[in-house]
Specification:
Strand order of the largest sheet: 1-2-6-5-7-4-13-12-14
CATH architecture of the largest domain: 4-Layer Sandwich
Structural class: alpha+beta
CATH class of the largest domain: Alpha Beta
CATH superfamily of the largest domain: Aminohydrolase, N-terminal nucleophile (Ntn) domain
Length: 493
């Protein structure tokens, strides 16, 4: 039975509620794919069922975070937040959404990059003062969290996230309008942040000056929507208006949308969004992600041709590039691996025997398709190499005569400080091994990565408008404080 626990109900009845605290577990945490920090969604729409709009928006953004989910709503006089651990469909049901009524809502689905994966760190965060409540959801990762935390003047934080620090700082001066506070605070915030937040009456959104993480504005018949990706606008029936600009702050209420700039734009959109993070049906900077990934596959085929009988993807992330590789090379495309779509996360801890089977829980080869064939296997990236090593072994056991691995990103050799939970440099296989050494480790007949220039050209954006730090080690926002890392605030307690 779902249990409600009221964490805090302050003088304005601003509340945070939780469910039964269930927590899913990665089947193989030692070989997780790269994960983005979060998905964010906000809607201002009087007369609409905003909690359900937010629910479906988060459903569309579920790929960006699967650890926890939450929704905040206001009917004009108080803010109510409900959040819990798990997937969106596990956290919310019809009865819960029925209690979250109002004209204004924000939502969040989380993959942790600052702070542990616990209920206290789920979002939206909530802060209440004599001046009213403030709920906030954040996609990205800050690099001066420790410095910002030193500016807090009162109260111990329950959460250990950069989002909690931002929320507290925005609510710290209740004597001024929150958008004025934000315009003064955000230039001092360093790192990646696409934010949506709300008080009892108004929706706000802001994007860091580099625009590292995506954030878009959409229009409903009776309101406005802000979301991490255009696909979430499609799901709720909102029309795409434009991207929120780097360094821009929006205020949305009954007077419409008002924009102000708090910093000069220095665009550095994340290149890895095109490789893996964003949905294929999303558009970034005017370019469809699906078409970009197919073009990446064509470039990959030109840069790393091979004689083979069949091109197969590692589903689902390798599929568009595999299609492009097959088109360019003339080698037939086929499905050689079947994915179990229901094995991403589970509440049942796998036994050691099952854990040792590893990737077989998620992928299984089609022997009749691959037996006796020379295969090109296309995947989006290699992090530690465990997944690709297991796939190569499976394919050989199923009768493949040759296995040629092609990767639609350059070698990931550097950690991300801006919202992707990559391994440390020491754990990244490309951080210490050459391409030939990686090929040998995987047991592949050949290994080819797309070049950085080739990937960049496929996006149609110039290199100086992209963050490519995980491939080059050149960080567009300097890391000036050594107090960084996922547990920076927990270490200070």
């Amino acid at each position: 039975m779902r249990r409600f626990e009221q964490r805090q109900c302050l003088n304005r009845l601003d509340c945070v509620l939780k469910g039964d605290g269930r927590l899913g577990h990665d089947l193989d945490p030692q070989d997780r794919a790269p994960k983005d920090a979060c998905g964010v969604f906000g809607v201002w729409a009087p007369g609409e069922d905003v909690s359900k709009l937010t629910y479906y928006g988060l459903y569309a953004l579920q790929h960006r975070g699967q650890e926890s989910a939450g929704i905040a709503v206001s009917e004009g006089s108080r803010i109510l937040v409900y959040k819990d651990m798990g997937l969106v469909a596990q956290v919310f049901d019809e009865s819960i959404l029925g209690t979250l009524r109002g004209h204004l809502s924000i939502g969040h689905c989380r993959y942790s990059t600052t702070g542990s994966s616990v209920w206290e760190n789920a979002q939206p965060t909530l802060s209440s003062t004599d001046g009213g409540g403030l709920a906030l959801a954040h996609n990205g990762n800050l690099i001066n969290t420790a410095q910002l935390a030193e500016r807090l003047t009162s109260g111990a934080m329950r959460a250990t996230t950069d989002t909690e620090v931002l929320t507290a700082l925005l609510a710290q001066d209740a004597s001024r309008p929150v958008d004025d506070v934000a315009a003064e605070l955000l230039p001092e915030v360093k790192g990646a942040y696409s934010l949506v937040w709300m008080n009892e009456t108004t929706l706000f959104a802001a994007r860091d000056p580099q625009g590292i993480r995506p954030l878009v504005l959409g229009r409903l018949e009776r309101g406005w929507v802000v979301a991490s990706e255009t696909a979430a606008l499609d799901i709720v029936g909102a029309s795409f208006i434009r991207e929120i600009e780097p360094g821009e702050l929006l205020t949305i209420d009954e007077r419409g949308v008002r924009s102000r700039r708090f910093a000069v734009a220095e665009p550095k959109g994340c290149l890895f969004e095109y490789v893996y993070l964003a949905r294929p049906d999303t558009t970034i900077a005017g370019r469809g992600v699906q078409s970009t990934r197919v073009e990446v596959g064509r470039v990959l085929a030109r840069e790393h041709p091979v004689d083979a009988d069949l091109v197969i993807p590692t589903p689902e992330s390798g599929t568009p590039a595999a299609i492009g590789y097959a088109e360019q090379s003339g080698i037939p495309y086929g499905q050689g691996l079947v994915k179990n779509s229901y094995v991403g996360r589970t509440f049942i801890q796998p036994s050691q025997t099952i854990r040792q089977l590893g990737i077989r829980l998620k992928l299984n080869p089609l022997r009749e398709v691959i037996e006796g064939k020379r295969l090109v296997v296309v995947d989006d990236s290699i992090v530690r190499g465990n997944t690709q090593r297991a796939i190569v072994k499976m394919l050989r056991e199923a009768g493949a005569t040759e296995v040629h691995v092609r990767i639609s990103s350059p070698p990931v050799a550097w950690p991300c400080f801006y919202g992707i939970d990559f391994a440390t440099r020491a754990e990244l296989i490309a951080g210490s091994l050459s391409v030939e050494e990686i090929r040998s480790s995987l047991g592949a007949d050949s290994l080819g990565y797309i070049s950085l220039d080739g990937l960049t050209r496929a996006t149609t954006l110039p290199a100086d408008r992209l963050c490519r730090a995980c491939f080059t080690g050149e960080y567009p926002i300097p890391i000036e404080d050594d107090r960084v890392g996922k547990f920076v605030l927990e270490a200070q307690r």
